[in-house]
Amino acid sequence: IWQPILREKADIFIFLGDNIYSDTSYPLVLQNNYKKLLSNKNFQTLRSQTKVFAIWDDHDYGKNDAGREYSIKKASQKAFAAAFELQKKLGQRKGTYQSYLLGPPGKKVHLVLLDTRYFRSKPSSYFWGLDWFLGKKPNWDTKATVLGEKQWLWLQKELQKKADLRIVASSIQLIPDKHKYEKWANFPLERQKLLRLLQNNPARQTIVLSGDRHHSELSVWPSPSEALLYELTASPLNQTSTFPHREYNPYRIYHLYSGANYGKIEINWQPRTRVFLSIHDVKGRIVFRHGLQLESKKNQ
Description:
- This protein has nine helices and twelve strands.
- The protein is α/β, with parallel strands linked by helices.
- The protein has a seven-stranded mixed β-sheet with strand order 3-4-5-6-8-7-9, with no helix packed on it. A three-stranded antiparallel β-sheet has the order 10-11-12, with no helix packed on it. It has a two-stranded parallel sheet with strand order 1-2.
- Helix 1 (2-8) runs parallel beside helix 3 (41-49) and helix 2 (27-39) runs parallel beside helix 5.
- The longest helix has 13 residues, at 27-39.
- It is globular.
- The termini are far apart.
């Protein structure tokens, strides 16, 4: 998968989590697996030609489906920060959430990277061990959280920043809500809160990126405003699923793709700004591609 990615010569590359697979209770195991990634020559080439950003998901956080209860999350964050050179950016912050304003006025992209692991409450479970069949039961507890209080306050301030395009990266899916796996819909109140915030912010267009699922798809959330909310799920780079997915997603446009792939965002600023969202296979061929027009908003 690295060869077509390197040929893109992208301005930035975003890791959406599960950047290594390292389920463990031992920090040294995490550190050694990051060393394997860092020693990969293709990864080194990517970092030499492209600015790399990263968030984590469960398998590089260190435990499948884990949240705030994970026993070595502080050591895990230290290993993550060292691998992606984020020690100065994160400082003493608990959690790996970050934001970046990229580009000049009129072409400003706001990149917001969420941490859906460090503070996340436990999802509710069904009785008699039916989680494997039904998935997690929705947690309607008003105190349950995905982002935690401090990250929510930070995000609310970030979303008031002016930008032409806002890209919000979440390791788990936000819009799709029918599958039984990890998703924002496991915490319905938190999902509603985030959807409201993303639909009511001063950016001309907001796009959500997600991974995790071992397949790729494009989902669209109906909005009361003119701008629809798009979510591009790009996954996996190489951890393909044994069985092809056939799951229902009423928000999906195009089709679901389960082969090794990467996602791509192209921005054409002139003469009228258009954004293209696409998924590419292991040879770099387009699986699907969708274009949208950035509408003007006041006070930009």
